[in-house]
Structures are given as C-alpha cells and as structure tokens.
C-alpha cells in the first residue's frame, strides 16, 4: 500500500506513547543565516566570521542527508510511517512590509516549528526572521493530513511582525562581552533578546506530559508566548520553567520525559525553581541526571550544544533512539530498563539539532492522561 493511500490519523499527547507516524526533516540547502537581530553567527575559524552567510559546506550536507535518510529508513523498518518536508530555496532574500532578511535557514528540525497536542498540529510563531517562512516547507504535508483526517485540527499561532520593537537593541554584542556568571544573571532575571512586544514561542520549548505542558522561557520564547499557549490550550495545565543556562533555547536538550514516572534532566542546567522538583516528587516521578556527553565541544558550524547527547527520540515507553557515539547515555538508559537503538547522527548538529529536533510527531497511540493529579499551588 502506498504512503498516500494509508489512512492518516493525527494524534499525540506525550513523548513516549508508541510512535506510528512522524515527520523527519531534510538538510537540503541549509544556510548559515544572514545577520538578524534575533541571533548572531560568528565562526571565523570555519570561514564564517560575523556578517558572512551562505550554505553549509556541500560535503557536510551530503553526510547529513545520508544520516537523515538512514534514520528515516530505520523508523520505517520498525513499521513507523515517515513523511518528509519540501525544502525551499533557503538562500533567497525574504521580506515582509516591516523588514528584509538576506537569507532563510533550512528545514531539518521540524520539532522547532510544529507542536502536536492531541489531534492538533500547531505552527509556532518563530522569533528568527530567517525562519519566518519555514512553515511553507510543511504545508504540503499539513494540507494532505487535513484532507485525509476529518478530525485533524490544523492551527497556526499569530505570525509575529518581528520589527525592531521585538528585540532589545545591541543585546548580543553586550551579552557576549560578559562573563558566564554575568550571563547567568540574565537567566535569573529572564532577560534575553526578546521584548514583550508580541507573543513568541518555538514549539521545541514545549515538553508534553499529557494534560501538563512544560514550557521553557528562553531566548526564543517570551512570557507573551506562554500566555498565548495557556489561552490556546485551556484544557491543559501550562507550567513555565527556567533552567540555569546562559542563553537557553529549546527544552529538549535540558528536560526530557522518558516514560510515565521518569524524566531526564541536564546535569549542567539545574532547575532554578524548587516548584518543579516538588511537583514531580509529589506525583511520584523520578528525575535522573543525564550522562556525561561524548563530546566536549560543539560540532564545527553548530549552534547546538554538546547536550544533544540527551536529545533522544522515544519510540515507545521502552524503546529509545540515541546518537550512536553517546555510549555513556546509552548505558545509562539501558540500566533504566530501555531498549536502546544507536543512531549515527552527530553530523546533523549544525543543521539544527539531534534526533528529537529532527522529528515531529503526527501519530502516537494513546490518550490524554493526567500524570500530575497532585498539583502545586501557583505553578
């Protein structure tokens, strides 16, 4: 039976129910994006000093395409339906009435953009101008799901204007000139590049635990974005969380649910609020610190941290995909009772992340469960 003739069902409530249908990103044409207020790219040692932009080296792209294709085939061999986005010409200039941006980025990490909650897939706002039009890569898939699944709710958060009012002027120049200790003070103050001019969030800042959604306040997700999510999902409990990190971006290399009752926490980014630990303890959840990463520095031309070691993809509550070089993380997960599938994926890092980043759920078996019936007041 062809992929097109299979019945599409959109539904996923958490990160661990049996995965049956997933989107895996593509590396084609991924860019070191042109300068913009939201972020700086400065890699002079690799030929990309601040201000220079262009496609990632072709030999890197070919290696990543191979790893992504092999990952997709691995999932398909396990009976999981895999769809892929349609890349655009990411080297082109894009604009709105408010701004012009000299390049786009890519479509390797669908998790950044697409948030699946139940029978809904929500397109996140995004806070980078270079990623404003990234949703177009996924529209052919979402259009098909809409035709094939009468219960599918296709939603999009309000597209932000991303004017100069959205960003703090000269933030990154001043931030990067500070010591790590001074940078951490920004985390305590929740003071990063975004203002509160408009609601902003990336989907990858949301961790799904059934009825409870944990949303990280970060350099790409502001208070307005979390407020918007609370109003959009009134039947869910939305918990704002912050972790000890200089410039946080996306929760899935910091705090990862593995199965009911067990979550993996980044050993270098302790939670700032005791409420998070109290909520988990009160509901008989165990939080374990992740293993030490295999790498002690980032991949060249990568903006992602070494903590992609814990950026795992759960195929079900007993089976997990882990980057193949992360031996310590694989051993830890085996001791915790998981069947571990090693997946070569380190080369993908410069293109937008790890195994979880590179995927977006379409369908997991299961229903919406309340895993935290005992709540903490004010959290």
What does this structure look like?
By secondary structure, this protein is of the alpha/beta class. It has one domain (3-364): L-arginine/glycine Amidinotransferase, Chain A (5-stranded Propeller). The chain has helices at 58-77, 110-113, 139-148, 171-176, 180-189, 223-232, 274-282, 327-335, and strands at 19-24, 31-32, 54-55, 81-83, 94-95, 100-101, 114-117, 120-123, 153-156, 206-209, 212-216, 237-241, 255-259, 262-265, 286-289, 313-316, 319-323, 339-343, 359-364. The strands form seven sheets. A three-stranded mixed sheet has the order 4-1-19, covered by helices on one side. A three-stranded mixed sheet has the order 7-8-9. It has a three-stranded mixed sheet with strand order 10-11-12, covered by helices on one side. β8, α3 and β9 form a beta-alpha-beta unit. The radius of gyration is 19 Å and the shape is globular.
């Amino acid at each position: 039976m062809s992929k097109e003739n299979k019945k599409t069902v959109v539904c996923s409530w958490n990160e661990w129910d049996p995965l049956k249908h997933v989107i895996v990103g593509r590396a084609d044409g991924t860019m070191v994006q042109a300068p913009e207020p939201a972020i700086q790219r400065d890699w002079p040692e690799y030929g990309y000093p601040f201000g220079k932009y262009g496609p990632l080296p072709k030999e890197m792209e070919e290696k990543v395409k191979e790893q992504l294709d092999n990952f997709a085939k691995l999932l398909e061999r396990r009976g999981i339906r895999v769809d892929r986005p349609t890349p655009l010409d990411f080297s082109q200039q894009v604009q709105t009435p408010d701004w012009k941006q000299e390049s786009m980025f890519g479509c390797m990490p669908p998790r950044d953009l697409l948030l699946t909650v139940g029978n809904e897939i929500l397109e996140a706002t995004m806070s980078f101008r270079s990623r404003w039009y990234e949703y177009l890569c996924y529209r052919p898939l979402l259009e098909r799901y809409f035709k094939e699944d009468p219960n599918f709710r296709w939603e999009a958060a309000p597209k932000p204007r991303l004017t100069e009012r959205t960003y703090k002027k000269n933030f990154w120049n001043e931030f990067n000139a500070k010591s790590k200790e001074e940078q951490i003070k920004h985390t305590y103050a929740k003071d990063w590049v975004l203002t509160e001019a408009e609601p902003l969030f990336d989907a990858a800042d949301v961790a799904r635990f059934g009825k409870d959604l944990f949303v990280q306040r970060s350099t790409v997700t502001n208070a307005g974005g979390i407020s918007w999510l609370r109003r959009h999902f009134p039947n869910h409990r939305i918990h704002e969380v912050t972790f000890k990190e200089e410039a946080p971006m996306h929760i899935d290399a910091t705090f990862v649910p593995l199965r009911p009752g067990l979550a993996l926490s980044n050993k270098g980014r302790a939670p700032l609020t005791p409420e998070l630990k109290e909520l988990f303890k009160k509901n008989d959840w165990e939080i374990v610190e992740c293993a030490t990463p295999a790498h002690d520095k980032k991949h060249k031309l990568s903006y992602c941290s070494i903590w992609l070691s814990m950026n795992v993809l759960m195929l079900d509550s007993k089976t997990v995909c882990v980057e193949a070089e992360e031996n310590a993380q694989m051993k830890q997960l085996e001791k915790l009772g998981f069947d571990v599938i090693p997946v070569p994926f380190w080369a993908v890092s410069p293109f937008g992340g790890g195994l979880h980043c590179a995927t977006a759920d379409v369908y997991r078996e299961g229903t919406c469960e309340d895993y935290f019936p005992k709540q903490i007041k004010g959290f």
